[in-house]
Amino acid sequence: MAYKVFGLTASDQTSLLRIAILGLISIVAVGSRLYSVIRFESVIHEFDPWFNYRTTRYLVDNGFDKFWNWFDETAWYPLGRVVGGTLYPGIMVTSATIYNALHLVNIPVDIRNVCVFLAPAFSALTALATYQLGKEVKNATAGLLAAAFIGVAPGYISRSVAGSYDNEGIAIFLLVFTFFLWLRSVRLGSALYGALTAIFYFYMVSAWGGYVFIINLIPLHVFALLVMGRYSNRLYVAYSTFYVLGTLASMQIPFVGFQPTFTSEHMAALGTFGLIQLVAFASYVRTLVPSDQFRMLIRLSILGLFVVGFGGLVLLTMTKVIAPWTGRFYSLWDTAYAKVHIPIIASVSEHQPTAWPNFFFDLNMLIWLLPAGIYFSFRELSDNHVFLILYSLFAAYFAGVMVRLILTLTPIVCVMAGVAMANVFEIYLDFSKTKAEAENMAVATAPAEKEKEKGKSQGGAGEPPVAVAAKTLYETAGFKRFYALFPKIVVVANFLYFLCMFQWHCSWITSSAYSSPSVVLASRGPDGSHHIIDDFREAYYWLQMNTKADAKVLSWWDYGYQLAGMADRTTLVDNNTWNNTHIATVGKILASDEDTAYELARRHDVDYVLVVFGGMLGYSGDDINKFLWMIRIAQGVYPDGFKEEDFYNAAGEYAIGDTASPTMRRSLMHKLCYYRFHEVMGPQGFDRVRKQKLPKDITLDNFEEAYTTENWMVRIYKVKDLDNYGRSHHAVSAFEGPRFKNDFVF
Q1: Are residues 507 and 571 in the same domain?
Q2: Sign of CA dihedral 520, 568, 562, 669
Q3: Maximum Cα–Cα distance across the chain
Q4: What is the CA 392 to chain-centroid distance, rounded?
Q5: Do residues 107 and 383 lie in contact, with contact meaning Cβ atoms separated by under 8 Å?
Q6: For strand 552-554 and strand 570-571, is the pairing parallel, antiparallel, or unpaired?
Q7: Can you tell me the distance from the alpha carbon of 318 to that of 309, in angstroms, rounded to the nearest whole number?
Q8: What is the Cα–Cα distance from 260 to 81, expressed in whole angstroms?
Q9: Gap between the Cα atoms of 436 and 432, Å rounded
Q10: Whose CA is closest to 121, among 151, 149, 100?
Q11: N or C: which end of the chain has fewer CB within 10 A?
C-alpha cells in the first residue's frame, strides 16, 4: 500500500525525487568545472577560445550586422580574413544573447565572464539531455545514471571547464539533444519531433564542424533499418522531415553554404533520402502489384538504381562537381595520410591516434561498461537500440584514430553505461523476489522439518545441543532470506564501490589535468610552495604597451589567436590554418639562416618575431620541440629551400648546441631561442627540456632582443630597420668579413 507524503502520491514522490537528483547532478556538473577559476582566475584558456572571445566581444560591441560582414585586416597579414563567412557563429551568438538578456533584466555582467562560464552552464544542460536520451532508449534509471556519468566524465570535462570557451562547450549538448529528438521522432513517427530535430541540427551546424557526424550517423541509422527490413511510415516521416528542413536550415550558415549539395561528406544523407523515397514508393506499389511480379520488379529496380547512382556519384566526383573528401576525413581512415600529405594536420597533438591509457584516463570504468551496454541493446533490439549500437561502434573507431574524438565517444559511453547498470540494478535491487523465494523455501522445507520432529518424539537419537542450536539458526526464515540476499548485496556493494571510485577518479583528473589554463602555468617548489608562471600574458602585455598599434608580429600559428586577442596586434598566421602556403612561409623564415630570414621578414613587413622557449623551466611545449613540424610544412611548399634531414646531425639525431647540424645552428629559430641563454645558465648549463649542453657564442646581426619574460618562456625580437641593417651589414662585411663568413657557413 502506498502512503502519501506531504499529500503527494507515490508517482509524484518519484517525479520529485528525479527532479531533485537531476538538480544535484547539474550542480555537480557545474561545480566540477570551476577548479580553474578557483585556483587561478576568470580567464580564457588555450588558443582557439581567444579567437571566439575576441569575435564575441566584437559582436557585443558592434552588433550582428557588422559582425556578419566583418573583414579583419589584422589577421593573416597582408591577406586579411572575412570573419563572418569563415567561422561557426553559434557560440558567439549564444554568448551575446545571454549577455543581452542579463543586461535586459539589469544584471551587469561582463561579457568575459559570460564566455568563461558558458561551457560549465551548458554541461548542466548536457546532463539533462543525456537523461532524456537514456530515458528514451531504456528508462528513467538509465537516464539518471547516464546523466550522472556525463556530468563528471573527464572525456567531456576536458572541453568544458570554466574558461574553455570553445565550440565543443555547447556542441556536445546539441549533439546529445539532437540524437534524443531524432530517436523520439522515429519512435513516434512525429513530424513535429522531426522538425525539432532539424532545428537543433541547424543550431549544431552553426556551432561546430562536428555536425558532419550527425548528418552521417542519422542516415546510417535509417539505412541500417531499411536493410534490416524495418521500414515504417514512422521512419519515413521522421527522416524526410529532418533531412529537408535540416539541410535547408544548415545552408543559411555562410561557412557551410551549398556544401550539403556538392561535398562528399553530405552525399550519404542525400543518397539515403533518395533511397527512402524509393522504398516508400515500393511499399505503395506493393499494394497494387501481385507479389511475384513485385519481387522481380523491385530486384531489377534496386539493381538498376544502384548502378546508375554509384556511376553518377563517381562521374560527378571525377568531374569535380562533387567535392572529394577533405584531408581531415581521409586521415580518419588512414592514420598515416596526414603525416605524408598534410603535415599541418598531423602536427596538432589532438589529431594523433589515441593511446590505450587515454581511454581509461578519460572514461575510467565506463569503458568496460560500453560492451555490456551493447550486449543489452542487442537483447532488446528496437529501432532505438540499433542507433545506439551504430553510434557506439563508429564513435569508438573514430576515437581510436584521433584523440580529440574521445569527446564524441563520451556521450554514448555514458548512455551505454547507464543502460548496462540499469539492467544490472533491475535484477539485483529487486528484493521482493528474494523475499518470495525465501518464503517459498521455508514452505518447501516445512514438511521435512515436521517429519524430523516426529521421528525425534518416537525415540530417535537426539543431536548434540550445539548442533541443534546451529541447525535451528540456519533453518530460520530470516537466515534463509539473508542467504538469498547475500549475492545481490555483494554485487550491489561492488558496483557502489566502483561508482565511488569513478567519482574520485573524475574529480582528481579534472582538478589535476584539465583545470590549468595554458596561458597561465603553475608549478610547485621543492618545499611544496605554489608558483604561478605568467610569462605568456607578460609578453602579450609588453607587446600591447610598447609597440605601435599597427605592428606586425610573426610567430608560429599556435599563438596567433592569443596574440590577436591579448596583445591586439597584427599577425601573419593564426590557428585557423586555412592558408597552408602562408604558414609554410612562416616556417621557412624560422628555419632559414639569419640573412635569408631577414630578407623574407622585411618582405612581409614583419616588425617583431616571437618565439616560445622552455629550456629554462623545462616547458616541453616550446618551439624547438615543434620545429621539425615547421620544417616539414615549409618543405612541402618550398622543397628546394631545405630538407628535414639537414637538421639532423651526423648521428641522425635532432640536437641543439654544439652537437647540432650546421643547418640547425644557422637557423633563425635556434638563434632566437638560445641567444644569450648561456649567460644565464652558466658555462656548464644545459637545456632542461632537451637535456643537452647549450650552444655558445650565438650572435645576431639583423634582429635585436626586444623583451624576454621573467622565466625566459617567451622571447620577442625586433627586426632591425633597413638603414640599420644596411650599415651593420656593410660594416661587418668591410671590417670583419672573415668572421661573418665563418659564422654564416658554420
Answers
A1: no
A2: negative
A3: 131
A4: 16
A5: no
A6: parallel
A7: 14
A8: 24
A9: 6
A10: 151
A11: N
Average pLDDT for 430-453:
55
Residue 223: give the domain boundaries.
Answer: 170-176+187-323
Copy the grid coordinates of residue 407: 569527446
- Give the residue carrying C-alpha cell 581521409: 330
Number of other residues whose CB lies within 10 A of the CB of residue 651: 8
Cβ count within 10 A of residue 56: 26
In this predicted structure, the answer to whether residue 377 has a pLDDT above a threshold of 60 is yes
Confirm whether 330 is domain-assigned: no
What H or E segment, with its residue span, contains residue 257?
none
Cβ–Cβ contacts within 10 Å for residue 633, how many?
27
Report the distance separating Cα 450 and Cα 529, nearest Å: 76
Distance, CA of 228 to CA of 232 (rounded, Å): 12
528 inside domain: no
From the list 555, 718, 722, 597, the residue with the least C-alpha distance to 75 is: 555
Q: CATH number of the domain that 636 lies in?
A: 3.40.50.12610
**DSSP sequence for 648-713:** S-TTS----GGGS-HHHHHBHHHHHHHTTHHHHH-TT-EETTTTEEPP-----SSEEEEEE-TTSS
Q: What is the pLDDT of residues 573-611, one digit of tens each?
A: 999 888 889 999 999 999 999 999 999 999 999 999 999
Q: State the Cα–Cα distance between residues 155 and 406, nearest whole angstrom.
A: 6
For residues 350 and 405, what is the distance between their CA atoms, to the nearest angstrom? 9
pTM, rounded to two decimals: 0.86
Question: CA 312 → CA 273, 317, 323, distances in Å?
Answer: 16, 8, 14
3-state secondary structure 204-264: HHHHCCCHHHHHHHHHHHHHHHHHCCCCCHHHHHHHHHHHHHHHHHHCCCCCCCCHHHHEH
